[in-house]
TrEMBL record:
Keywords: Cell outer membrane, Ion transport, Iron, Iron transport, Membrane, Receptor, Signal, TonB box, Transmembrane, Transmembrane beta strand, Transport. The lineage of its organism: Bacteria, Pseudomonadati, Pseudomonadota, Betaproteobacteria, Burkholderiales. Residues 47-157 form the TonB-dependent receptor plug domain. This is TonB-dependent receptor. PROSITE patterns: TONB_DEPENDENT_REC_1 (PS00430), TONB_DEPENDENT_REC_2 (PS01156), TONB_DEPENDENT_REC_3 (PS52016). SUPFAM superfamilies: Porins. A motif (TonB C-terminal box) lies at residues 711-728. GO terms for cellular component: cell outer membrane. Belongs to the TonB-dependent receptor family. It comes from Duganella fentianensis. It is found in: Cell outer membrane. Residues 271-694 form the TonB-dependent receptor-like beta-barrel domain. It is a multi-pass membrane protein.
Length: 728
């Protein structure tokens, strides 16, 4: 039986009739929110003091999202201004911050959003999909971050930090869940002190889902949409003294299963509705579908405390041993569904990839108003990728194109912080980058390449940022920031009808201001930021038209503006809520820019004299204007434990799939919700829960293929599951 004190009963009654702010103001002695510490400026700081729009996901809020075995795309819409999508399924995610990203799915595609895992940049899109497990937190930094983070960060950074070993005690956790379609998620970690100086932490993840989609062409049941994923991480911490520490990290990932399922003519002509007869559990395809991925990596993070300064060294290696993904691009067979002009089945991936990076950074420890940090950075990547075409009737390979790319970059960077007073802090940063790419075609079988077989590109750029923080009080601070960013040139491989294409370097200038506040004796926290940015020579990807090709172009200018807000609060001691939202407006500004139109869709943009689509004034692809998210958690304290209910919701407004606008290729708004009901006991040491993801069973077309028919792909289905967690 649930026992509530008189005070709790009064609080519940008040919360039912009073606004959140009023309820909070009545309870001065109630629990406070923990201080949020982030490393957005490469130092551990209170989030309130950081002059950057940043959101941190950690602890239960993050655990709830990953409980159903989903991949990194689950972060889409869970924080303001962030979208994540993929046309490759669980591999090769593409990130967008403030509407600014890149839809390119080619092997060596670069993105303006950088993903940093344990201080090491994950440059290639394949590396960005490493699973989320045993992490201390995920920081999303919005706006250019190039003066402190290396490699292509004009849109922002998504930063992961693994839980670290410690020499204090043996501890760890285990996490088991089972859900719809026999979806199994097994996760665990163990921290083991080896001596007073050494500690080890071992973390592992196993995920599985059964195939549950039928192929109506081959008359086979349950042959698609399954996966097997496993990943491991082993860390060693060495602390021989108070002035030196070394953290070593080795990790690997292996994934097999279905690639993205493309569905022919899934979109009703002249609308963005599902075509009549659509069934998620059935697909009519005469092509093979599957993907395999194996990656590995290692890094070493060394720290020396030299008294007046700290010296940091971060050495990283990331490799791809195998990546192959194959799918039926037209999404059907010669007999349908609907009219399919021609059959296309492709496969491709990486034969191998090696990435090396090294950073040395020096950080001051001055007691006075002036502090600084500076460093050098080196990056080298080399790899070979390929693409194949197949005969959909015989499954035989009909063509093969293999490419090789080397990419080297080096940089010098530094930043200065000066406290003008107890209330005013100024910060400035500078970074010089030299970036070079060498790209060449290694082999072409049944492909007559147009133009040169190799391309070399080299660019250098100096970026800067300047910010000021003003503390209105101990609990409220404001900031303003101006920052520039740079993304090096990108190169796309040739195809049967398109030569190697190059997109020139793009640059951004961003203006941002915001306020961050702890409210009601720190029982609530809120932040609000506004921004405006201009991108010159933005790299854009043109796909399809009337043929299955990909090429790169530059837009003379794109602009973006908007705002972001985060809020969290204890409404009562047992009732906690969070909310976030963003408005992002983007626009392409280049009257001379046009692209080929699709073969079967209803284009709503004007056409030029050559019959090409004018995209001037269009929003960027995959850039929703509105993103909203909210969570609510209520706890009932029982005699031997706690019963709780937690719900989380996210919303994004409509999106444009491509550079041009068409009725069929506009994704509808999407709402996804989750519910979790559980019980924990022994001071939170054990927990059992039932949960649902996409509880409303929302079905949406979230992407498309535009060259052949109205082919699309869809979001994840509803899922019900149970979970048990324990710690030791």
């Amino acid at each position: 039986m649930i026992k509530l004190s008189k005070m709790h009963k009064r609080l519940l009654a008040l919360s039912a009739v009073m606004p959140i702010g009023s309820a909070l103001a009545q309870n001065a002695s109630e629990p406070q929110l923990e201080t949020v510490t982030v490393t957005a400026q490469r130092r551990a700081e209170n989030i309130k003091d950081v002059p950057v729009s940043v959101t941190l996901l950690k602890d239960e809020k993050l655990d709830v999202l990953v409980s159903g075995g989903q991949d990194i795309r689950l972060l889409a819409g869970k924080v303001p201004s962030l979208n994540v999508e993929s046309s490759n399924g669980r591999t090769f995610p593409r990130f967008y911050i403030r509407g600014y990203g890149n839809t390119d799915f080619s092997t060596f595609a670069s993105q303006p959003v950088s993903l940093v895992y344990d201080d090491v940049v994950q440059e290639n899109g394949i590396l960005k999909g490493f699973p989320i497990f045993d992490v201390a937190g995920v920081e999303v930094l919005r706006g250019p971050q190039g003066t402190l983070f290396g490699r292509n960060t004009p849109a922002g950074v998504v930063k992961f930090e693994s839980e670290k070993p410690n020499t204090k005690k043996v501890e760890g956790y285990y996490n088991v869940s089972w859900a719809t379609h026999n979806t199994v998620n097994l996760e665990g970690a163990a921290n083991v002190p080896l001596s007073n100086e050494w500690a080890m932490r071992v973390s592992t993840l196993r995920q599985h889902r059964d195939n549950f989609v039928d192929n109506t062409f081959t008359k086979q049941d349950d042959v698609l949409e399954g996966y097997n994923e496993h990943a491991e991480r082993v860390q060693f911490l060495y602390t021989p003294s108070t002035t030196f520490s070394a953290l070593f990290n080795v990790h690997a990932r292996s994934t097999t299963g279905s690639a993205r399922l493309f569905r022919a003519n899934i979109i009703k002509k002249g609308t963005n509705d599902f075509a009549d007869g659509y069934d998620f559990t059935k697909l009519n395809t005469n092509g093979l579908n599957g993907q395999n991925l194996r990656t590995n990596g290692a890094n070493a993070r060394l720290t020396w405390d030299l008294g007046s300064v700290k010296l940091f060294s971060v050495t990283g290696y990331e490799g791809v041993d195998e990546y192959y993904s194959r799918g039926d691009i037209d999404g059907g067979t010669p007999t349908g569904p609907g009219f399919i002009p021609f059959q296309v089945q492709t496969g491709g991936g990486l034969s191998w990839l090696h990435q090396y990076s090294q950073e040395f950074r020096v950080e001051s420890k001055n007691a006075g108003p002036l502090n600084w940090q500076s460093g050098v950075y080196f990056f080298k990547e080399s790899g070979e990728g390929y693409s194949n075409n197949y005969d959909s009737n015989t499954q035989a390979q009909t063509s093969h194109l293999q490419s090789h790319q080397n990419n080297t970059a080096s940089a010098l960077f530094g930043s200065v912080t000066y406290d003008l007073s107890d209330s005013v802090v100024l910060r400035g940063g500078l970074r010089y980058t030299q970036d070079k790419k060498d790209f060449r075609t290694v082999e072409a079988i049944n492909v007559t390449q147009i133009g040169p077989k190799s391309v070399d590109e080299s660019k250098h750029k100096t970026n800067w940022d300047l910010s000021a923080t003003y503390k209105l009080s101990q609990d409220i601070s404001t900031y303003a920031r101006v920052a520039t960013g740079f993304r090096a040139p990108s190169i796309a491989a040739a195809s049967a009808s398109v030569p190697i294409t190059v997109a020139d370097a793009e640059t951004i200038t961003s203006y941002e201001a915001g306020v961050k506040a702890d409210l009601f004796n720190r029982r609530a926290r809120a932040s609000l930021s506004v921004y405006n940015y201009d991108v010159k020579n933005q790299q854009l990807t043109v796909v399809g038209g009337n043929s299955n090709v990909t090429k790169l172009i530059n837009a003379a200018k794109t602009t973006g503006r908007g705002l972001e807000a985060d809020f969290e609060a204890f409404v009562t001691p047992d009732f906690k809520v969070t909310a976030g939202g963003s408005y992002n407006f983007t626009e392409i500004k280049d009257p001379s820019l046009s692209v080929a139109k699709c073969g079967s869709c209803t284009v709503t943009d004007p056409l030029n004299a050559a019959g090409r689509v004018i995209i001037d004034g269009n929003p960027l692809p995959q850039a929703p204007k509105y993103i909203l998210n909210a969570t609510a958690r209520y706890n009932w304290a029982l005699e031997n434990g706690n019963l709780f209910v937690l719900t989380d919701w996210s919303y994004r407004s409509k999106i444009n799939f491509f550079l041009y606008e068409a009725k069929e290729f506009t994704g509808k708004p999407m709402v996804e919700g989750g519910l979790r009901v559980g019980y924990n006991w022994a001071g939170g040491k054990y927990e059992v829960a039932g949960y649902a993801r996409n509880i409303t069973n929302t079905e949406r077309i979230i992407g498309a293929i535009d060259f052949n028919n109205l082919t699309g792909f869809v979001n994840e289905p509803r899922q019900f599951g149970v979970q048990f967690k324990g710690s030791f």
